[in-house]
Amino acid sequence: MLEVRKAGKVYEGKVAYRALTDIDLNLEEGEFVAIMGPSGSGKTTLLNLIATIDEPTTGEIKINGQDPHRLKKNDLAKFRRRELGFVFQDFNLLNTLTVEENMVLPLTLDGKSVKEMKEKSKAVAEKLGISSILAKRTYEISGGQAQRAAISRAIIHNPKLLLADEPTGNLDSKASKDVMELLSTLNRQDKTTMLLVTHEAQAASYADRVVFIRDGKLYSEIYRGESQKGFFQQIIDTLSLLGGNDHDFSSVRD
To answer: What number of CA atoms fall less than 13 Å from residue 148's CA on the CB side?
Structure first.
């Protein structure tokens, strides 16, 4: 479903900086994978390459057999809008719009009818438990509700691949748990393929496997078994071997 082959990224400048080196990564359809690593390890750079926000310097990235980086500008915008879903730490909701208007933005940009948008927003809102706040503005809702609204917007067009960058970073521990359980449920029920970048071991423990990056290179990966608790401990153990500053990771957010 996702194939990353020998991907590298060098940022040019007075002193060239190599952010990623020869990254190989495969995601099967319906898989839920987390990426972890210390600050500056290259995990967000990798996510941005996959998201087509940035281009690899070397190697290639294919999504469903297609290399989006070879597409022309308009085709790339269409690909991003139809094939990918995005969830960010700071929600990226528009304050001038209601929750429902934010949710249907991808459908609006794709020229869908008002009737179809209403039907989809109602169905997705019910699934994510935010039907009661559809008419509210984003400044009238909690952080947890805002992230649910952002997830609704990310999945309303049934993307092939959902990319989440620190989706629990601005949430308290209860809202974080709710959001991760929601993403896990969407992954299981809708078979949505997910790639999550996170500092938080608790969030990563919801994934099928965790890929660790250090200094722009793949460090290791571990797979979840039957026990989420056991997987969480494995993640903590790997992070301690990985190194990095204490503030780079948090096991449980206060």
So the answer is: 27
